[in-house]
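Example S7 (structure tokens).
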């Protein structure tokens, strides 16, 4: 595999996972390889306890495709933030990996595209990679963008745009220059009840500097506007399964869209034989939510207190 700096045209992809999300990170990365020239991709995986078998499968997948692949343990970095992690315990530790990308990656990596593990790629990423983002590029979060109360709670101007952190185009050179990781940690430490911790921090601190990306780069499976999700999914370059009920959960296809796209991504990955995750308690809760309000993304239901496990 190539060393950093050998090819300035490499597209750097980052994702973070723990023991529960290792296989899903692998499926996401497999979808990136399927729609891009693997030799032009360098995948950076942040590891917080990923199972050995999943790491081995990802390594073999990358080697067979001819892609560049690096794995970094982020456990020590996360362990240094016990207070913040405890306050944000309703999220996995790995979810905070995106905040330390500039700290963990070599300084020779100046730009990256960050993907959440509950996404799949459906297109060539070259167009996205060419976007000139001064510090951060993101897609607007239409579920929260019109929520003036939430914006006010994080000191965001009501007329400011609110962005989703599931996919980020990051200028690490500028991020490092401004010491932004430490700034975010300070923010989270003083905001223990942030509803969407890292996402709220990014919006509150950078709202005037975020470059808005076209919706197609981070398409939700749901929308507050009737019929809009279906239109967005038709043009999706990447799909974000942002609901609490994920496509790897048993019964997902009965209530949620874009299940065929995920099954295709899974079928062409080393995890094609992985069985759906089944949990009777979760299934009952999701059936209840689906019957009351279809396709409500996890975390966006301020009035529905259904805890996800």
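Recovered sequence:
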């Amino acid at each position: 595999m190539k060393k950093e700096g050998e090819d300035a045209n490499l597209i750097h992809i980052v994702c973070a996972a723990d023991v529960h999300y290792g296989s899903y990170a692998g499926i996401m990365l497999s979808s990136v390889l399927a729609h891009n020239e693997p030799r032009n991709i360098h995948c950076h995986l942040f590891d917080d306890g990923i199972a050995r078998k999943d790491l081995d499968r990802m390594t073999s997948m990358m080697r067979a495709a001819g892609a560049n692949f690096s794995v970094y343990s982020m456990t020590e970095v996360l362990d240094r933030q016990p207070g913040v992690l405890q306050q944000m315990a309703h999220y996995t530790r790995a979810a905070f990996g995106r905040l330390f990308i500039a700290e963990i990656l070599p300084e020779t990596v100046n730009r990256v595209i960050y993907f959440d593990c509950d996404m799949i790629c459906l297109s060539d990423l070259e167009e996205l990679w060419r976007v000139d983002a001064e510090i951060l590029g993101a897609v607007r979060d239409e579920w929260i963008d019109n929520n003036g109360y939430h914006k006010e709670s994080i000191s965001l101007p009501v007329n400011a745009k609110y962005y989703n952190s599931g996919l980020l185009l990051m200028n690490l050179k500028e991020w490092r220059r401004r010491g932004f990781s430490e700034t975010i940690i300070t923010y989270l430490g003083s905001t223990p009840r942030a509803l969407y911790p890292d996402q709220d921090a990014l919006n509150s601190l950078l709202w005037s500097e975020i470059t808005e990306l076209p919706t197609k780069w981070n398409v939700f499976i749901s929308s507050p506007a009737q019929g809009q999700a279906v239109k967005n999914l038709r043009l999706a370059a990447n799909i974000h399964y942002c609901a609490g009920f994920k496509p790897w959960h048993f019964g997902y296809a009965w209530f949620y869209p874009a299940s065929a796209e995920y099954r295709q991504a899974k079928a062409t990955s080393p995890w094609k034989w992985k069985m759906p995750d089944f949990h009777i308690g979760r299934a009952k809760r999701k059936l209840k939510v689906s019957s009351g309000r279809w396709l409500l993304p996890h975390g966006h239901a301020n009035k529905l207190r259904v805890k996800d496990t």
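Notes on this example. Residues 1-6, 290-309 have pLDDT under 50 and may be disordered.
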